[in-house]
Design goal:
484 residues; ten-stranded mixed sheet; 16 strands; 25% helix; alpha/beta
Length: 484
């Protein structure tokens, strides 16, 4: 059994991502008698090699790395980061925001190798509610990858797990919502009750908020009686959960990698508390101190978006500003260019003491919730993280990030360990990132069985522990989260 304190950091022998169909650079020994389909080779695919080396560095069997993780006839869920279908920098930006399909290809091959093809493989995520799923998977190689396997007689499920989807107008304002019921297996409410990490602050449950939802939405699911999440049954039915996050900065959480990527196992975003309304002096963590003009602007905007009449005026305002004030550009484009003055809103700063609690809850669910959604004391499924840090994202992540070339794959069997290592590589102090720091505290479930000092780094990079890629944090994490 591989201990959760081992993390591999493998630098690829190329740069950037390979072209479709992401064939390996050579036929590795374990695939010489591969029966599922004929593997061909292609030049310049360092990603496939890096994924393979990351598995081997964890101490897994080189002849069959995933043999001890999955058995024939079981279910494998591969969960990438497919948060959004657009980025202000278009293709370049997309590569820094979502998990690249070339990282998924070798993972699928090794699952097939471990099971002789007798396995149910699902690639899935819960993107933002306004995302065009078909556009997302088509333009980013996922649909093409699914077709690649289908032509070889291998069925790969590719599922949009959202329970609800939103429709927006030309100005990007949500005008309606409808049920999607994306998971063919349905959904389960997983209740952590008093064992939720939200419980120590449950007296403030009426302040729990998420952008674009009524302020009372979250308190229906998180209050003194229940603390529940809306988990797709496809996730709960997994015997092996493979987390394939993208390494990025994050405005609310400091960074997003293995831990934060599990926000995407919750089928309905309205069941997750992102912050507490108000400033820190009045029991909130939306911002540090009140900036009256910004507060009025933001809350007036939120008010307008709650009715058809208000949406009409909000759209007119946005059209006017885009045409006459912003030179034809939108908020995101101005943010990327650094031309938009940012103020703390929606808990987008280092003082957010809410979002990490939901992140930790969701990680406990993936390890300890059984297939019926009942929390148990022992681990319920195998877990593996193989993270995409080939092209990472810095500054205003997770969706307005600037590409940063790092050319590494980060892997492990525990998200707290992989994220601790990732924070260090980014140049961040992990003790100042609540989702990492607080996950070392096993309050109700043993998410970790090691301390930070016991984490073992495996890498092909010399002096890896001293490596610092010097990521630029989101604005309201700067001069706070960096290592000193």
């Amino acid at each position: 059994m591989i201990r959760g304190n081992i993390v591999s950091v493998i630098k690829q022998n190329r740069t950037g991502y390979p072209r479709f169909p992401y064939n390996p650079e050579k036929i590795f020994p374990e695939f010489k008698n591969f029966k599922e389909y004929k593997i061909e080779i292609q030049d310049r695919n360092g990603v496939y090699t890096a994924v393979r080396e990351s598995l081997c560095s964890l101490g897994l069997n080189e002849k069959n790395p995933l043999k001890n993780f999955i058995k024939k006839g079981q279910n494998v869920v591969i969960k990438p980061n497919l948060v959004r279908d657009v980025h202000p920098l278009k293709r370049e930006g997309m590569e820094s925001m979502i998990t690249h399909a070339s990282v998924i290809r070798p993972i699928i091959d090794y699952v097939l190798l471990a099971t002789d093809g007798e396995v149910n493989i699902t690639v899935c995520d819960v993107p933002l509610q306004q995302v065009d799923w078909n556009k997302l998977i088509k333009e980013n190689g996922y649909l093409e990858l699914q077709e690649f396997y289908k032509e070889r007689g291998i069925d790969i499920n590719l599922i949009d797990l959202r329970y609800m989807i939103s429709h927006t107008n030309d100005e990007g304002i949500i005008i309606s919502r409808e049920k999607n019921n994306g998971d063919p297996l349905g959904y389960s409410a997983v209740d952590l009750a008093r064992h939720s990490s939200l419980y120590p602050i449950i007296k403030d449950y009426k302040k729990f908020e998420i952008t674009d939802y009524d302020s009372k939405t979250i308190s229906k699911h998180h209050n003194p009686e229940i603390n529940e999440y809306f988990i797709p049954n496809t996730i709960l039915n997994a015997d092996l959960f493979i987390n394939v996050p993208k390494l990025k900065t994050h405005k609310k959480g400091g960074l997003t990698f293995g831990l934060k990527n599990l926000v995407g196992i919750n089928g309905d975003k309205s069941w997750i508390a992102h912050h507490r309304r108000g400033g820190s002096k009045v029991g909130g963590d939306e911002y540090e101190r009140l900036q009256l003009f910004e507060w009025l602007r933001w809350h007036l905007w939120a008010f307008l978006k709650r009715s058809k009449f208000g949406i009409f005026f909000a759209s007119l305002i946005k059209k006017f500003f885009k045409k006459y004030i912003w030179g034809g550009k939108d908020f995101a484009e101005l943010s990327i260019e650094g031309k938009r003055e940012k103020h703390i809103t929606e808990g987008s700063w280092y003082g957010n003491d809410t979002i990490w609690r939901c992140i930790k809850d969701l990680n406990n669910i993936i390890f300890f919730a059984d297939k019926r959604g009942i929390m148990k004391d022992i681990k319920q499924r195998e877990y593996l993280c193989i993270g995409d840090a080939i092209i990472s994202g810095e500054r205003e992540g997770p969706m307005e990030c600037i590409p940063k070339r790092t050319d590494i794959i980060i892997a492990g069997t525990n998200p707290v360990a992989t994220d601790t290592v990732s924070a260090s590589l980014m140049g961040f102090d992990w003790t100042k990132i609540p989702q990492i720091k607080n996950s070392f505290n096993n309050r109700n479930w043993e998410l970790v069985d090691f301390s930070q000092s016991e984490i073992i780094w495996k890498s092909n990079i010399k002096n890896i522990k001293e490596k610092n890629y010097k990521f630029i944090p989101s604005k309201y994490w700067r001069n706070y989260v960096e290592k000193r």
